[in-house]
Amino acid sequence: MKIFSKIILPSALILLLGACQSSVRTDIQTYRNETAGIPAAGTVYIKPASGEEHVSLEFEFYKKKLAGRLKALGLEQTENKQADYLATLGYAVSRQEKDEPSKRVFISGYYGYAPYPGRGMVTADTYGSDFEYLREVSLTLDKNTQQKAEAKDKIVQVIATSEGECQHLSVVYDEILDAIFSNLWRANGSLMRMTVKGEAKCF
To answer: Which residue ranges form the domains of the chain, and what is each CATH number?
Structure first.
């Protein structure tokens, strides 16, 4: 029985860690033109923030998922650049050193430090890496005007930042979108931290 217990306990610990890693914590910063009406219906053209004319298969993957979220708001994605609205999508992943015993937090565009609770019997060495990844997704929604864009044509801009051990944005992208679209129309200048549990695991 003692040998059996030694085998089961590490396995249970691995399963526990896997469950914890499936949660994606995201900081959402929202900037909104509160005088602009909230779109109820219309068409939307989604373009990359990079400004590249010929988009990649990678962008098409992220665009398709975003289009589904916008459709739920009443905005139908179209390839016609004369759409009613223009959505600009940006994303990036960068590697950074882990901060121990404090954890970096993203507040008003700047990084600071906050107390980081201990992991109990699980040490930092258990995770096997001194690095983590900063996943960033940005979304801007504007009225699509043919003339030079003005402030009154801006509707909402969202900047989502998420720190974690998974370097593959495609694995956590749905959870980041969940955080963004849980309330796209937050107050101007607001900052909210959300934790969304996901099914996918990072390898």
So the answer is: 23-197 (3.30.160.670)
